[in-house]
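Supplementary material to the annual report.
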Amino acid sequence: MKWQRKDILGLEDMSVEDIRHILHTAKVMKEILMRPIKKLPTLKGKSVVNVFYEASTRTRTSFEMAAKVLGADTSSIAIAQSSVVKGESLYDTAKTIQAMRADLVILRHPSSGSAKFLADILDPGVINAGDGQHEHPTQALLDIFTMEEAIGDLEGKNVVIVGDVLHSRVARSNAWGLQKLGVNVTLVGPPTLLPVEMEVLGVKMTHDLNSALPGADVVMALRLQLERQKSGLFPSLREYSQLYGLTTDRLKKTGKQSIVLHPGPMNRGVEISDDVADGVQALIEKQVTNGVAIRMALIYLLIGGSGNVVA
Amino acid sequence: MWWLKDVWVIDPSQKLSASRDVLVQGGMVLEISSSMTKDEVLAKAQGELIEIINGQGKFVFPGLIDVHTHLREPGQEDKEDILSGSRAAVRGGFTTILAMANTQPVIDSRALVEFVRMQGERAGYAHVLPIGTVTKGMQGTELVEMATMKEGGVAAFSDDGKNIQNAEVMRLALEYAKLTGLLIISHCEDKNLAGEGQMRRGVASARMGLKGIPASAESVIVARDLLLAEETGGKLHLAHISTTESVELIRRAKERGVDVTAEVNPHHLIFCDEEVGITETYLKVNPPLGSRADRESLIEGLRDGTLDMIATDHAPHTQAEKTRPFAEAPFGIASLETALSAVWQHLVVPGRISPDRVIEAWSFSPAQRFGLQGGSLAPGTPADMVLFDPDFSEVIESATLVSKARNTPFLNKTLQGFPVMVWVEGRLVQRNRQVL
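Predicted assembly:
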């Protein structure tokens, strides 16, 4: 297929064909990643700039590794969140990066829509590494990749996503992407974190985890931002974990050898118990490995040019 | 002397909507009658030069009165100042504008009231009338010297931009303002419900992951203030109403005889939340654009008089401020130059609201409620007047806007129906879209 995207901003607007093409490319990338000497000359002379307005060692390192395996040069601009308003504007930062002749920009930013904002300004491509509470497409793609790797074709499969859906860019991107692949998605959370307007995602919603679990092929626990308690969105970690925490006993309710995903970093004992996190059903480390493969695929597709040397 | 021939006159103060000839002399409306002969007019001119305007296909109506503008002076002159704002006003058909008090410093003393008024007079375009704050420093705790500020020419009191969260302070304001006979204008927004919200809470905010402001953030304060006005007998005006629930609360309160009026902004009558894109900060406004159903309720409210007047809430910002990710951009739409045209094109032309009702709601009603000059073309009144050409179309371009601000959803779009001549007290201040 012909790849035409300049940017990866989200899965809401991505076609099934593009998603499949990315997953296919990532499979090849994973093979390369698993080699003892993993370095390609494919993107030699290309520069990838990580611009992170939120602290995220995991995602940034994953992107850096992905770019380096492909032979690109990487640099990072970490900007403290506090300087977002007071300091240089994103617009001016964007212009500066462009002037430095970057080939690809990876953006993590606390404002929803910031990735599109940047993409509209920049000539080089932009990969959204998480924009506010909007989308986190690379996370959803690596989740989907991990699911397919574990259970095969996802069409007709049941995926339960539990937690703070309202504030989760991971949940939004997964809901869009999984639906396009024919997955039955159910979102679960308390009414304050899963308000009625989330119906816009077009998937099933319930406040009762126990009733959602039977038949689930995949259960994904979302990271709970602990500061939400202070805003009154839930009363205590204790009650949250009793109602929505993923435990071994609860996982049995699926009636299947379901797989468990978590975007990390985990709050052990809150949204996921130790035994589930460390158990055989959890593919959390696989997600991390696959994250590099997915990001390699995206970087390659965006700036690898027409010389289709790996896929 | 001006002789406007065969022009469609809309003057709700005289219940007039018909083709007439209009004579203006010495800054006043001299006469409006069915037809005049050249000899009759010559006799009245008594040797004065007569400029004849063929009014066929055009409308003349009282200069619009906008009870809600932000002119940003003193303190934020990079966004707008009183000169640029009052030029933008006459370009858009407004001959009187009320300037909100949330400047830097806020207008909470007689000296500052006099400053704004004087700057308006120095500018010499639209009449600029200062609104003072309700509370000192707009802190929502102690009342300003209302009687003294009235002597300085304050037109009303409002902490617009910031709601008075303390209900007791609001109650006291409604009581104390009785000394002045002036209105308390309420910016209805519960701070806690609005939170850090960026747009109306609903499916559009949920989809984009933008923090939502529930409709109740407005309507709970509308309910509170209506009850306080009812209890105190104070005079209340509600700014920028945007929800179905608010319209219904106001309708019921008016039936009970509460001394309340309310305004609606053009953008709430034209746009709704589902049209807001994730980078479209020019549609980021407070109160936020509501649902489709809200928009219908507002149009209905304006038609039946529940919403008494239209006001722009002209909120100029710099391009740098609006060229930011959605959550970081300030709220507000600059609209003095486009509002009438936008309402005409989107609501009058499709037949949703009659032209007579629009003119009543934007001139006569505000004049009556706020006790202002204007809003009428009755013979003997100062000729604050607009000649409007419904066929005139214009691309809204950065180069032609006279406001300092460009934060309008109509930028680079074409609108049709514009004021082509505007008089303030009989003096021509805008002709063929050029401010003179």
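Chain B has two domains: 2-60+380-435, 63-370.
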